[in-house]
């Protein structure tokens, strides 16, 4: 299971998501939200990193504790529920 949080101008994010979806290496992709365009990064200190399956819940829980808006909280809770469903 792989999670990626993509931030940026809405049209660019949607274009990038379409590009990722068209790549046959990606299966069962789920987009959690493209509702709002946020000008300020929600997770400015996040870098891409590989997290072991055993540690992903901890990473998502840490992000949930620092989430600054309801949409982020909802998306992170959804990610946590997906991870817990595959534990």
Helix content: 40-55%
How many separate domains make up the residues? 1
- Written as H for each helix and E for each strand, in order along the chain, the element string is HHH
Report low-confidence residues grouped into runs of 5 or more. none
* Number of distinct helices: 3
Mean pLDDT across all residues, rounded? 81
Q: Sketch the major β-sheet.
A: none
Rg estimate, integer Å: 13 Å
Beta strand %: under 5%
Number of strands: 0
Decide which structural class fits the backbone.
Answer: mainly alpha
Sum up the overall morphology in one term: globular
Structure description:
The protein is an all-alpha fold and 87 residues long. The protein has one domain (10-85). It is built from 3 helices and no strands. Helix 2 (56-66) runs antiparallel to helix 3. The radius of gyration is 13 Å and the shape is globular.
Walk me through the topology.
Blueprint: H1 10-22, H2 56-66, H3 70-85
Helix pairs in contact: 2-3
Keywords:
single chain, 87 residues, mainly alpha, 3 helices, globular
Brief summary:
The chain has 87 residues and is an all-alpha fold. The protein is built from 3 helices and no strands.
